[in-house]
Specification:
The protein is α/β, with parallel strands linked by helices and 243 residues long. The protein contains eight helices and seven strands. The protein has one domain (3-240): Rossmann fold (3-Layer(aba) Sandwich), CATH 3.40.50. A seven-stranded mixed beta sheet has the order 3-2-1-4-5-7-6, sandwiched between helices. Helix 1 (3-31) crosses helix 6 (168-189) and helix 6 packs antiparallel against helix 7. The protein is globular. Bound molecules: S-adenosylmethionine.
Length: 243
């Protein structure tokens, strides 16, 4: 990573450390809990693409552990081995408390750009929810996802992505994320900056089409692309090419 990217990445991680304790409550209030439906549905769709009864699942940018909990609850009788990876010790601390006692769930401090704790072709599913926007080097991370996934393995990306459409709903959404969200998020977390970062990072991130193109270059072929709640969140499910 270049010096600028390293600095940018450090700032992002420090920001999550700072808001870690209030992250869950702020998130639930700001999303009115709708994110639970998105998470549950995307996991269901990912599992429908996998046939094995035993699955090794890695949740990158696991934050406070919500996706891990949903994977655990939604595994539908399959045996799952879950690993959550995140660079923020603050977020991992909250996740550790929340997931304490769950069988086969481990947490690891690390970044998407460097998954050296995982062997090549060793993972059935990687998920990254509202995390890929925060990764300073997108291509390095995608290369790592492709390396560690087994042939035919699934990558689940759930994210707020830039929308090209300019409908009324889109304008309302923009108003909410740029005006309301920083205000409410800022008050609860006492970190206004962290919640102005969100709309800016969405604006600076790729569209679903651009991201799919990048993923394809690394052998990750998009199988499912859909949006939730009138385009607020986007799900991309990719499969690593079978060779
Ligand atoms: C918006 S939170 C999402 C957390 C969780 N996935 C969820 O769905 O609630 C973004 C997370 O990305 C993590 N993050 C930031 N940079 C990262 C990187 N380079 N690699 C992996 N995770 C990163 C942050 O520490 C934070 O926990």
């Amino acid at each position: 990573m270049s010096e600028t990217k390293i600095e940018k990445q450090k700032k992002i991680i420090a920001m999550f450390d700072d808001i870690a304790k209030s992250y869950d409550i702020t998130n639930r209030i700001l999303s009115l809990g709708i994110d639970r439906t998105w998470r549950r549905d995307s996991i269901k769709k990912a599992l429908s693409l996998c046939r094995d009864q035993y699955l090794r699942i890695v949740d990158v940018a696991c934050g406070t552990g919500d996706m891990l909990q949903f994977w655990y609850d939604g595994s539908n009788g399959r045996e799952v081995d879950l690993l959550g990876i995140d660079p923020s010790s603050g977020m991992l601390e909250v996740a550790g408390k929340k997931l304490n006692g769950l069988k086969n769930v481990k947490l690891y401090q690390g970044m998407a750009q460097n998954l050296n704790m995982l062997d090549s072709s060793s993972v059935d599913i990687i998920s990254i929810a509202f995390g890929i926007r925060n990764v300073a080097d997108l291509q390095e991370s995608v290369a790592e996802f492709s390396r560690v996934l087994k042939s035919g393995g699934i990558l689940l990306i759930l994210e707020f992505m830039r929308e090209e459409k300019r409908g009324i709903l889109n304008r309302l959404m923009k108003f909410y994320t740029t005006k309301i969200l920083p205000l409410i998020g800022g008050i609860i977390s006492r970190n206004y900056r962290a919640y102005t970062y969100l709309p800016n990072s969405i604006k600076d991130f790729k569209s679903a089409e651009e991201l799919s193109e990048i993923l394809k270059r690394y052998g990750l072929v998009t199988r499912v692309k859909r949006t939730y709640s009138a385009g607020i969140a986007t799900l991309i499910l990719c499969q690593k090419e079978i060779k």
